[in-house]
Design brief:
CATH architecture of one domain: Alpha Horseshoe
Helix content: over 70%
CATH class of one domain: Mainly Alpha
């Protein structure tokens, strides 16, 4: 039977071995010798070694650990600023290289630059945004290929009068999905509206896309009117009328918006008639373009011209 003093000594020895082993494995993974983790100089040496190897992220980690040990050490704080500046400098350089690669159409190369930046700074906002844009571009390119392939299959089978079941639905689904996914994020509004109009010529019963087109055109008319670009506002309304010339409900909404703009311009003309009569004339002339049945604006213009 083991005596108590011997048993106690054995347990202490085992405990020391376990603790020593745990410290050694933990610190060795960070490049720090076991038992020295309480000394800032140890972490500084490890940071310098990692920096020489080009591991800036690891160097910064060790420096920040050193700062937790000695917060007032100016050498540590200066080293952190220097390494962070080095990371920012390399990141800025690679961001420029990534953007240049995108302009040249080398998207895989650009992605590699952005991933290198994120390996230095996982929270780099510009790199994360650039990666998101690349993913969206890739998704849109893939969708366009599917739409083109689907439309080609649809057209070929229509010409041969052997339309296979499902191809019409596939073309409709891909075209519709591409339009709805791009809602509010399309770089060129004019091209986007053309895509919608093309889709509706092929699939005129798509009520959701028709609603989207109506909303875009009327919203653009409103924005142009608010900016006093009255000719542009008229253009959007006229385009909406052409798109929905067989839709009584939508034409009624367009007509209502026209009359509202005509009334607003009439009132602007009244307010300007004394101080700036030339502006009043412009407002009333545009009021009649928006609402040809505006009797008040017509009467005001007639009175001015007869003076």
């Amino acid at each position: 039977m083991m005596h108590p003093p011997v048993l106690l000594s054995s347990l202490l020895l085992i405990l020391l071995l376990v603790l020593g082993s745990g410290c050694s494995s933990t610190q060795s993974t960070q490049g720090v010798v076991s038992g020295d983790y309480g000394k800032p100089a140890t972490w500084l040496r490890s940071a310098e070694a990692r920096e020489r190897k080009g591991d800036l992220q690891g160097a910064l980690y060790n420096l920040k650990v050193a700062r937790t040990v000695s917060r007032q050490d100016s050498k540590i704080n200066a080293a952190i600023k220097r390494v962070e500046a080095k990371i920012n400098g390399q990141s800025d350089k690679m961001m420029k290289q990534g953007k240049q690669a995108v302009r040249q159409g080398q998207f895989t190369k650009a992605r590699r630059y952005y991933l290198k930046i994120l390996s230095l700074d996982p929270k780099h906002k510009s790199a994360l945004e650039a990666m998101r844009e690349l993913d969206e571009r890739a998704s849109k390119a893939s969708m366009k290929k599917k739409v083109a392939r689907s439309n080609s299959n649809y057209n070929n089978r229509t010409r041969k009068k052997k339309l296979a079941k499902g191809f019409h639905e596939e073309a409709y689904s891909y075209s519709r999905q591409e339009i709805l996914q791009a809602d509010g994020r399309h770089a060129n509004l004019g091209e986007y509206v053309k895509e919608i109009e093309t889709h509706l010529r092929k699939f005129p019963k798509d009520s959701e896309v028709r609603d989207l087109l109506s909303k875009i055109l009327l919203d653009q008319a409103g924005a142009a009117f608010d900016a006093e670009n009255y000719q542009d506002a008229l253009g959007f309304l006229q385009r909406a009328e052409r798109a929905f010339n067989s839709d009584a409900d939508r034409l009624g909404k367009i007509q209502k918006q026209r009359k509202a703009y005509g009334k607003a311009l009439y009132l602007k003309g009244v307010r300007s008639s004394r101080a700036e009569p030339e502006h009043a004339i412009k407002y009333w002339e545009y009021a009649l373009k928006f609402d040809p049945e505006d009797k008040k604006s017509r009467l005001r213009l007639r009175n001015i011209h007869s003076m």
